[in-house]
Every structure is written in structure tokens, then in C-alpha cells.
Structure prediction request, 156 residues.
Amino acid sequence: MKKRYTLRCAVFLILTKIENNTEYILLQKRYHTEVLSGKYDVSCSGHLEENDSVKEAMIREAKEEININLKKEDLYFSSTMHAHFEDADYILITFWANTYQNTPKIMEPDKCNELKWFKINELPEDLADTRKIMIENYKNHIPYTEYSFESNKSTY
Prediction:
């Protein structure tokens, strides 16, 4: 019997806040990682584990990476990206939240060396490409994107 094609799945969090009528987004700067080292990333992310729901995975990763507590009702769906990378294809599911408990802080200093709030319309230049798309999808309410397939480098 032919082996079924499988995709990897990862979850991403766009954490926002409003101050003085301006929206801010929390970004982390990756450090000494195999993927995207030296680039800004969304506040936290991670892979699904066996028997995880996507929201359970997001809640776990938020606690592990930036020490915040989220509830399922705090998470709002933002978008899905089907992404093709050299080593694997992924389904990337992005949530956003602006309600959480605890102050965000770096919990994995071996993987992240900065956690900083940016105005959502003034993002750093060294933001990872897929993360730029995730944030644009969030801002423009775009629910689905494909990334890096030969027929389309990036489509909405």
C-alpha cells in the first residue's frame, strides 16, 4: 500500500495590545536556532504534538516560550498558510490574542534574545518573510495563503 503524504503543522501567535489608540505587536528575535536565527518572529510558535488540538498547542507554546497564560476563548483564528520549504511542507495556523495573564518574558534564552513591542505598522526590516505575511493576513483579514510553491511564490 502506498504511504500517505503527510504535512507538518505548526501554530503561531500574534499577540497585540492597544496603547494611545495605536496597535502594537509583540515580536521575538530568534537566536542560535536552526531556522530564522537573527530574524524577528511572532511572539511564539510551535509544532503540534500527538493528541493536541491547535489551540491546546498554542496555549502550551505561549507558556513555554513567553510565560503567558492563555485560555482557549482568548485565541482568535487569524489565518492558515500552506507553506513549501526545502525540508518539508507545513500547515501554519496563526491565532491572535490581546487578553492573557502574566507579563511576557523570555523563557528560552538559548533560542530568543529579545522580546519587544512594535507598532504594527512599523515592523522591523529583519522580520521573517512568512511572518510578514502572517501579520499582513491578520491586518487585512485574509484567512488563507500559499507560500513558496513553484506556481506561486506567494498568493492570497
